[in-house]
Specification:
The protein is of the alpha+beta class and about 100 residues long. The chain contains three helices and six strands, in the order E-E-E-E-E-E-H-H-H. The protein has one domain. Strands 1, 2, 3, 4, 5 and 6 form a six-stranded mixed sheet that branches. A hairpin with a 6-residue loop joins strand 1 and strand 2. The chain binds zinc ion. Zinc ion binds next to loops.
């Protein structure tokens, strides 16, 4: 676990992965680590596997289940960081 240099919030560095046709989840080739907010949100859009250090976008179905079932999902820290404008201004933010 690390902390955001801008706001001090706990973040988890993870690489973007995608679900393959065979159901396995693999890192997107060339994906760099992005800061994922350590908190979970009812309106989150990411599924994080902190053990493997990977995340992927939740499917519509997963987001629906998270909203109705109280199962929370994660968000990119860029989406919630109060200092995110600085990230963008410096051009450091990566498209997720
Ligand atoms: Zn932050």
């Amino acid at each position: 676990m690390s902390n955001c240099k801008k706001c001090g919030a706990e973040i988890i560095w993870a690489r973007r992965a995608e679900k393959q046709i065979d159901g396995s989840v693999r890192i997107v080739p060339g994906a760099r680590a992005n800061p994922i907010d350590a908190r979970r949100f009812t309106d989150g859009n990411l599924v994080l596997d902190s053990e493997r250090g990977i995340y992927r976008f939740a499917t519509g179905n997963e987001q629906e289940m998270a909203e109705h079932g109280g199962k929370r999902l994660w968000k990119s820290h860029f989406a919630v960081c109060p200092g995110a404008d600085d990230f963008r201004r410096n051009g450091k933010a990566q498209p997720l």
